[in-house]
Amino acid sequence: MSDLKTCSEGLFELYEKLDGTSDVLETEDLVDAKTGKSLEAIYAASQWQLMWRKFIRNKVAIVGGIVILLYYLAALFPGFLAPYTLSTRFREYIHMPPQRIHFFDDGKLRPFVYDVELTIDENLRKIYKPNYDKKIPLQFFARGETYELFGLIETDLHLFQVPEGIVSPLGTDRQGRDMFSRILYGSQISLTIGLLGVGLSLFFGSVLGVASGYYGGRVDDLIQRLIELVRSFPAIPLWMALSAAVPPHWPPLRTYFVVSVILSVIGWTWLARQLRGKVLALRNEDFVLAAKLAGASDTYIIFRHLIPATLSHIIVVSTLAMPAMILAETALSFLGLGLRPPVTSWGVLLKEVQNIQSIALYPWVFTPALAIAIAILAFNFLGDGLRDAADPYTV
């Protein structure tokens, strides 16, 4: 009996000590043992703040995001960044190799290019040689050919120009057109058609996927059978068949929109399947049941609660889907089933160099493929970083 009394007194004293130290623990900040920094901000952060903290630690994803930002800025102002327009031709500089831009002249920062001279060798081939006796200075923010900014404002201001001759950092094509300018103008179509195609895929995939998981039953069965039907067709032959049905006499704007719809025909099925699985787990959560008890309609619950709850996943999927859209447009245009001249896209530029002989003799005309590869890698790096940041099981 005395042992039991002694034990109970000891437990009571221990309880008093723990009760006294709890107040101290509540007032002190949680501190990281490694860095010594307070963890209070981390525990109080929202889901988006936690995603941002994890994302900025991924340096490769940051680089990918910066490259994509630069790409879209270039696509937004191609007329200003390009020294020439799409219709500019230099018949005396056909298939001219890339020019080297020299930034320093006699130890001073004075960008210039050497003049180019055309000669014919013994095999009657054109040879372009720089004339080292004649330097042509680059003029920045100079007046040149007229173009329309955003398709509305007419201006002739260019980032750089030369008062005479030609400046072509990436060379010219078979018609004497500047490849650097054409790649910049082509980025407008190739990058925005990916955005439009992904946007349509996100809309159909989000609405149908969330509705399938939320309603269940016959609605779920109907949508899932539709997804299986669409995915039963091979993607590339289906795209080719739909693209071949586009009349060749249609105006470029209508063809652009139709190709975007064609690219999104299959893309929405992947997102719909993934969102269905997430909504099946979310539809029995407390916030959904509370909305139902409050009298909210199904449409309100879907668009106000369920889609925002899966928004992080939608953003990641859309970023990873962009490379596929860009490659699909490039493939269709390369095969002659997508966009056609006079519309300029990266796929249209590659279509003009389909034979191996042209690439062997004039490798610089294949530079649009390099622009595509850099864009695809940047989107993949950014998508991987966003996926890791949105994953709650990664640190």
Protein architecture, described:
The protein has 395 residues and is an alpha+beta fold. The protein is built from 15 helices and 5 strands. The strands form 2 sheets. Strands 1-2-3 form a 3-stranded antiparallel sheet, with no helix packed on it. Strands 4-5 form a two-stranded antiparallel ribbon. Helix 7 packs across helix 9 and helix 10 packs antiparallel against helix 11. It is elongated, with a radius of gyration of 30 Å. It starts with a helix and ends in a 5-residue tail after the last helix. About 2% of the residues have low confidence.
CATH superfamily of the largest domain: MetI-like
Largest sheet: 3 strands, antiparallel
Radius of gyration: 30 Å
CATH topology label of the largest domain: MetI-like fold
Domains, number: 2
Give the % helix: 55-70%
Strand content: 5-15%
Structural class by SSE content: alpha+beta
Q: Give the averaged pLDDT, no decimals.
A: 82
Spell out the helices and strands N to C.
HHHHHEEEEEHHHHHHHHHH
Question: Class of the largest domain in CATH?
Answer: Mainly Alpha
Count of individual helical segments = 15
Low-confidence stretches: 22-28
Shape: elongated
Sequence of strands across the biggest β-sheet:
1-2-3
Kindly state the number of beta strands. 5
Instruction: Please give the alpha-carbon distance between the first and last residues.
Output: 53 Å
The name of the CATH architecture of the largest domain is: Orthogonal Bundle
